[in-house]
Amino acid sequence: MSYAHSATGQFAGQVMIVNERRHALETQFDRILSEYGTAISRLAFSYERVASVREELEQEIALAIWQALAHFRGECSERTFVFRIAHNRGISHLRKRRPLHQPMEELDESDQPVDPRPHPEEQAARNHQRAQLMSAIQSLPVTHRQMIVLMLEGLTHAEIADVTGITENNVAVRLTRARKALKDAMGVMP
Asked: pLDDT tens for residues 129-156?
């Protein structure tokens, strides 16, 4: 066997390995978007109220997940990995779009997710409550907003700590403060 033939065979083997790895990454990426896509949309909604810009943010998050996926070593859960990327993109988005201290405007009814329930009065009441909640969440400082959104997505204190890079005790303290700030923003009596 000649050297050229051997090198060609090795190259073909390497190409096959690369193609298999890429296919595995594409499959994992598709599954991640399928599994976490709705949560990513809700998270993006907490950072951006304009539907078209929110779609761009969702695409930025998806692209960031794709770019980071090959480097994911499993040191945290996949869920934590996805939320960390999504929140980092959300914060970057806020910094590009407006100063962090500027409050967000009221939500328009057209920005509300539609609940296809048969009772229009109940649907209107739920949409109004959702709008109030989202408006209150969006009026919070980013650190409080992060805590509330991650909590509403069902992340544990440990997962929130991994996403935000703080200790679990600090998560508990920030969540307590964020809940109080949210109650105040909504005008709820303690």
From this structure: 888 888 888 888 988 988 999 999 999 9
